[in-house]
Specification:
Layout lengths: L1 H27 L4 E8 L8 E9 L7 E9 L5 E5 L5 E7 L8 E7 L7 E7 L6 E3 L7 E6 L3 E6 L5 E5 L4 H6 L3 E2 L2 E2 L6 E12 L5 E10 L6 E12 L2 E11 L4
Length: 252
C-alpha cells in the first residue's frame, strides 16, 4: 500500500513539473515583433537612445496585436518601457510636442474597429524621468437630424453652429424608413467619433502642435456627414484649442 501511494505521489510530482515547464516554455516562445526602431536623444544628455516600438500578435499570422509597447534602451544603461493599447496597427513619432527642447514619444494605435478610431499616447523621458503627458480631448459636439432632410451640429468649445442640407441622401434615408414625407420618424442624434487621426503639425514659429480629425456620421458608420478638424498647441501643461473647422461630406 505504501509503495502504491509513493508511486502516486511521484507521478503527481512529475506531472506538476511537466505542467510548470510547459507554462514557462509557452511564455518563452511568445512572439515579439519590432514595428519600428530609431536612434534619437530623448533624455537631453546629448546621447542617442535606442527606441523600439514592439508588439505581440495573438497568433503568428494574426495582424491584430494583443500587446503593444515602446521599449527604450537609454544611454544611462537602463531600459524603460511605455505601455500602449492593443490594436491592428501602431506608429511612433519622435517630436517635441510640449516644446521643452527635448523630443517626446508620440504613439498612435488603430483600434481595429469599423470606425477607424485611433488611440494616442504621449510620453517624455527628459532627464531619464518616465513621464506620461496629456493628449487633447476630442471636441464635444452636439449633433442631430432635423426635419426636411437636414442636420444641425454645435461645437461646445467654440459655440459655433452648423446646418447641413442632406437632400443628396434623400432616397437612401427614405428607403430606410428614416424619414416620411420629409419628417423624421423619431428624434435622432448623429454619431460623433473620437479622433480618427491625430498627428503632429509645425507652426510658423517652428513650435509643434497637434492636428486632429473627427468624423460625424448619420444612420450608419459609412454615412459620413461632416469632418471636423481641430488644431492644438501645448501651453503651460495643457492643450489649447487654436482652431476648429467643419467640412460637410457629400455623397458620391
Amino acid at each position: 500500500m505504501k509503495k502504491e501511494m509513493l508511486l502516486v505521489i511521484v507521478s503527481f510530482f512529475l506531472i506538476s513539473i511537466t505542467a510548470i515547464t510547459g507554462v514557462y516554455a509557452f511564455e518563452d516562445n511568445t512572439k515579439v515583433i519590432t514595428i519600428s526602431e530609431e536612434e534619437v536623444d530623448i533624455t537631453g544628455d546629448g546621447q542617442n537612445e535606442s527606441i523600439f516600438l514592439k508588439g505581440v500578435p495573438y497568433q503568428d499570422e494574426d495582424p491584430f496585436l494583443k500587446k503593444i509597447y515602446i521599449e527604450v534602451a537609454a544611454s544611462n544603461g537602463k531600459t524603460y518601457t511605455f505601455p500602449l493599447e492593443s490594436g491592428s496597427k501602431a506608429s511612433l513619432q519622435l517630436t517635441d510636442l510640449n516644446n521643452d527642447g527635448i523630443k517626446d514619444l508620440f504613439a498612435s494605435v488603430l483600434t481595429g474597429g469599423s470606425g477607424g478610431i485611433v488611440v494616442n499616447f504621449l510620453y517624455s523621458l527628459k532627464d531619464f524621468v518616465h513621464t506620461e503627458l496629456t493628449i487633447p480631448e476630442p471636441l464635444e459636439i452636439d449633433a442631430k437630424f432635423l426635419n426636411g432632410y437636414k442636420a444641425e451640429m454645435k461645437l461646445k468649445q467654440t459655440g459655433e453652429s452648423y446646418l447641413f442640407n442632406l437632400k443628396d441622401r434623400k432616397k437612401y434615408y427614405k428607403k430606410l424608413g428614416f424619414y416620411y414625407k420629409g419628417k423624421l420618424n423619431e428624434p435622432t442624434e448623429l454619431s460623433v467619433n473620437p479622433f480618427n487621426s491625430l498627428s503632429p503639425i509645425q507652426f510658423e514659429n517652428e513650435k509643434m502642435g497637434l492636428k486632429g480629425y473627427q468624423r460625424v456620421t448619420g444612420v450608419a458608420n459609412a454615412d459620413t456627414i461632416a469632418l471636423v478638424k481641430s488644431v492644438w498647441r501645448y501651453e503651460k501643461g495643457h492643450w489649447k484649442l487654436l482652431s476648429a473647422d467643419v467640412k460637410q461630406e457629400r455623397t458620391h
